[in-house]
Specification:
The complex is a heterodimer of chains A (422) and B (146).
Chain A (H helix, E strand, L loop, with lengths): L1 E7 L3 H13 L5 E5 L11 H5 L5 H4 L6 H4 L2 E5 L3 E5 L4 E4 L4 E9 L3 E3 L16 E3 L3 H12 L5 E5 L3 H11 L4 E6 L11 H13 L3 E4 L3 E5 L6 E4 L4 E3 L2 E4 L3 E3 L15 E2 L11 E3 L4 E5 L4 E4 L3 H15 L12 E6 L2 E7 L8 E6 L5 E7 L2 E8 L5 H10 L22 H8 L1
Parallel strand pairs in A: 1-2, 1-6, 2-3, 6-18, 8-15, 9-10, 9-15, 10-11, 17-19
Antiparallel strand pairs in A: 4-5, 5-6, 7-16, 12-13, 13-14, 19-20, 21-22, 22-25, 23-24, 24-25
Helix pairs in contact in A: 1-8
Chain B lengths: L1 E5 L9 H9 L6 H6 L8 E5 L2 E5 L8 H5 L5 E4 L4 E4 L9 H5 L6 E3 L4 E3 L11 H5 L5 E5 L4
Classes of the chains: A alpha/beta (422), B alpha+beta (146).
Bound molecules: flavin-adenine dinucleotide.
Chain lengths: 422, 146
Amino acid sequence: MHCKYLIIGNSVGGVAASEAIREIDKVGKIVMVSEEPHRVYSRALIPYFIAGRIDLEKMYYRDANFYEKNDILPFLGKKVIKIDFKDRKAEMEDGCKIGYKKLLLATGAAPFIPQMKGLDKERPKDGFFTFSSLDDAMKIKKKIESGIAERAAVLGGGLTGLMAAEALAENGIEVTVVELAGSLLPGVLDETASHLVEEHLEEKSLKISTGRRIVEVVGEESVETAVLDDGTILPCDLLIIGAGVRPRVELARDTGVRVNRGIVVDRRMRTSVNDVYACGDCAEDYDFLQGDFRLLPIWPTAYAGGRVAGFNMCGVEREYRWGTNMNSMHFFGLRIIVAGSITENGDDEVFKKICGDGNYRRIALKDDRVVGMILMNEIEGAGVLLNLMRAGINVKSFKEELLSNDFGLISLPEKLRQEIMT
Amino acid sequence: MRRIRCREEVCIGCRLCEVWCQVEHSKSKEIINAFLRETAFPRVRVEERGPISISLQCRHCEEPNCVHACISGALYRDLETCVVKHDASKCVGCWSCVLACPYDAIIRDDAHNRVLKCDLCEGREEPICVEKCPNDALIVEAYDAL
Ligand SMILES: Cc1cc2nc3c(=O)[nH]c(=O)nc-3n(C[C@H](O)[C@H](O)[C@H](O)COP(=O)(O)OP(=O)(O)OC[C@H]3O[C@@H](n4cnc5c(N)ncnc54)[C@H](O)[C@@H]3O)c2cc1C
């Protein structure tokens, strides 16, 4: 079979690309392949689904007629095992081959599973789950609904781990979070914010164990206990792994496609091989703050990168411009928004303010430009701040305003505000 | 393509735009009910600092950052009308769009875990806030594609 555009990966990056292509090219044949058997869904909604806040139908990111409407031929539940970049052919597990003119690798990332005694990654015990696919979610849900899950251990106190922990706790499950680093959300929050989150979670009856690893999982057929490196034994019916992700670069490795930690692309999302593009969690995106490329495994960069790739694949030049570390999260009602650089950096000027009710603001400046922010609870104005970051605006004349809880467009000097609004 | 613009030099911060937006987006479309018997919310927000005030609503961007950031698919851009729309039934309240929007135009509805935004008053000739603005501070402007 032949097509003009072959997209591997049926998630946000691939969808964004196909939608961009259809804005330009209404007829060129698009084929989308995904290892997962489901129509496009949002993996970022897994915590909402597990918590019971949304039903399965709401997990789907686009309507059921998405493929039809955009004239896309989907191959779902099919894995691409090899690509011949010279002959421009992708080979699937069942031997079927698809030729292409333009190729997009939107293969995403896979959950990282640390080694531990008693774990057979190919055949994990019942109750042992990652937290990254709809299949994971449905299995976890089934386990919860069976009523036999009373206690859970969550490996990882990062974003995924804490979202998993909250979702399980909302089902009345007793949850212990085990985090290797000395504090929660390492690399995501600063120490102050991390402590505020920890206090908040403990108030909600989560158990937190930082500076610890799970070294062994015990149980015959099913998970029974998790053993920590200090010998602590955690009885659990569920062991959920939320320890970060690794880009899926296997199709590009040892081919002509340059791979660093992720697939290397330029600002038009082109890889080192002609007519081959990459986007999303499998690629290294352009970070405007660092002026360099790096892994940014988040939703907005996957969408924006996919869209840029799609335009370029049909000959419309677009550049990826706006990516950097950014995230919006919430744990038991505590809202947190972060963007840019978070960690203490010698040459940054840091403004911080804590004022009860979990309100915390931290703005980092470098040469009078915003380079990082953490907003807790009061998150209005976050977008205005991010925009100041993106545009590299000098904020010297209104620095004090940055910490005010009702910071917004109105806080900016009139001239600047008007520039932004036009 | 159309969007609403606030001429801040004549905005007096009367907040009638908020009031009428709330009425227009209520079930009854009737002012007393909208304020006393329903939980309707406005999709426009007036920000004030001393003598300055400005009415803020969605700019219906051609490349909307909010749509790119939306993890549920609730936000989308209607390619025919060029209006950035929000399907509230799909919204989960992740607040990603609050971070993405440079214009403070996304309004959080904490009670329902969702956001609200200007829809340019679908079905009306002229958006209600523009029609009711006593000072003509709010105007509809046409803008060209990139
Ligand atoms: C629980 C959870 C919560 C999250 N919450 C947020 C959030 O709140 N905000 C945020 O910004 N981000 C969040 N993320 C991250 C976000 O979901 C990802 O950044 C995003 O999904 C990346 O999209 P993608 O298109 O690059 O790849 P993916 O979504 O990873 O999809 C890649 C697809 O490609 C398929 N594939 C890979 N290799 C092959 C192959 N060889 N053949 C066929 N198919 C293949 C995979 O099976 C998969 O379906 C969350 C992630 C998780 C797991």
